[in-house]
Amino acid sequence: MRAEDLPEVRRLPLFRDMLHANFEQLMQGSYAQLFPAGLELIRQGDPADFLHIVLEGAVELHADWGDNRCTMAVVQPVGTFILAACIKDAPYLMSARTLERSRVLLVPASDLRAIFRRDPEFAVSTINELAGAYRAVVRHAKGLKLRNSRERVAAYLLKQSRMAENADSFILGVEKRLIASYLGMTPENLSRTLRGLEGNGVTLRGQQVTITDRAALAAVAPPDRLIDGPDPGGATAGVSLPPPTRVNPAP
Amino acid sequence: MRAEDLPEVRRLPLFRDMLHANFEQLMQGSYAQLFPAGLELIRQGDPADFLHIVLEGAVELHADWGDNRCTMAVVQPVGTFILAACIKDAPYLMSARTLERSRVLLVPASDLRAIFRRDPEFAVSTINELAGAYRAVVRHAKGLKLRNSRERVAAYLLKQSRMAENADSFILGVEKRLIASYLGMTPENLSRTLRGLEGNGVTLRGQQVTITDRAALAAVAPPDRLIDGPDPGGATAGVSLPPPTRVNPAP
DNA sequence: AGACCAGATTGACATTCATCAATCAGGCAC
DNA sequence: GTGCCTGATTGATGAATGTCAATCTGGTCT
Known about the structure:
The structure is a homodimer. With about 250 residues, chain A is of the alpha+beta class. Chain A contains 11 helices and 11 strands. In chain A, helix 5 packs across helix 6 (about 120-145) and helix 7 runs antiparallel to helix 10 (about 215-220). The longest helix of chain A is centred in the middle third of the chain and has 27 residues, at about 120-145. Chain A is elongated, with a radius of gyration of 19 Å. Chains A and B meet through strand 4, strand 5, helix 4, helix 5 and helix 6 of A and strand 4, strand 5, helix 4, helix 5 and helix 6 of B.
């Protein structure tokens, strides 16, 4: 892997506190790889061999059952995914595919398991990472069960707004059909719902989202820290909600 | 706490491998308490002070948003819950209430955090517990997003059947409205769906479930290890699916 | 036994949501 | 620029699910 990536990886909450020697060893067995867009990195059901870390690009985690497919999360740099499967040495519960050309660091699961057994700091980091990931999924499940699709969309927009640098005008970083799948609805339904939300404090033009009346939007779906997160105590990497969005220059 | 409970707690995957001295210390700060049925043990949003372990009875984990409420899990002996919140020292994402008279062991979160920092075995156990809990929620979310209500009900029955001692005839251990909420549907819808499933290999009389044609039921919702679990490598305690059911004597 | 009560069921109805099909719009290759 | 291709949108429709209200049922208490 490129030497210049090391500091960034080292700075991840998961690796930040471990002993240097152990970090070195972990990285020695790892390798970064460049993948084209649309490539299936892992397939659900396969044995978990590598912890994946997205260095560049974006990766979708999705699940399939019969003919149905749904997006569970989008991981962006620098985020890790499928940590739990590696730890349990169990089959992946989700598939992963690149949304764009992406560089991914692959860390052997066996090394991982060996090292947190002898590096207490790393063990604690792993515990925190997993606890954060767990809470992220619980929040996702809560959103699915407690909110209808209109409310989920409104809450999603508000959350993206919070994460954007310019909270009042940002662009959706992902295809709408992916957002729809993430929110547990069809693209058609999302499209109509978005249109229905104009007049509730949002304006849309393509990927462009402008919040004109935050209170009105919040009235559709009162934001709740216990659903929309994040934990007060810092961002949860790993399986997170769809990507932070970039600011966009005024037209 | 009662001395006779100690061995059972000690046998939990979470505590099995830790040093005896540390287990002792952990238990010294803990206390078991008997609660009546229907009592709210914890309320979502409150700070996480104690890891909870159900020794007797049954506890429902549920979430609220506005006027909506949904069941996220039912924990039965001997199972732990809200480990993640304790670890992150963050607010509970779910509320908990006793479904029946229950005895619960309360372990101070601060002790927990202190001890897994110095007991590597306990740290590893915690990691495994969390990884299992994470995967359980992911499976739950997958079920919600990939299956319609009819399929969820069929899969639920099949799963309960697998967990029962007599797989072909068992009783639902929980109120139906609770099951409905867990499955993300209304009690009315569950009732109709259950009726609709007669003729697909199931017979119902009250809480009594009899599977007459497993294949027919499985045809409604093909079981999938990646949704219905469990992990091949052993039962995941903590936040698990609704309770194992007891066998029932033939009428 | 009888009254009572929470939960379950049923029916009628409204709403949400998915599906199918037909455009529409924007980006990219040539 | 033109053609094409994917994703987005829109419309029409039906299926799935929620809601409200009215029983029904099983168990508990007295």
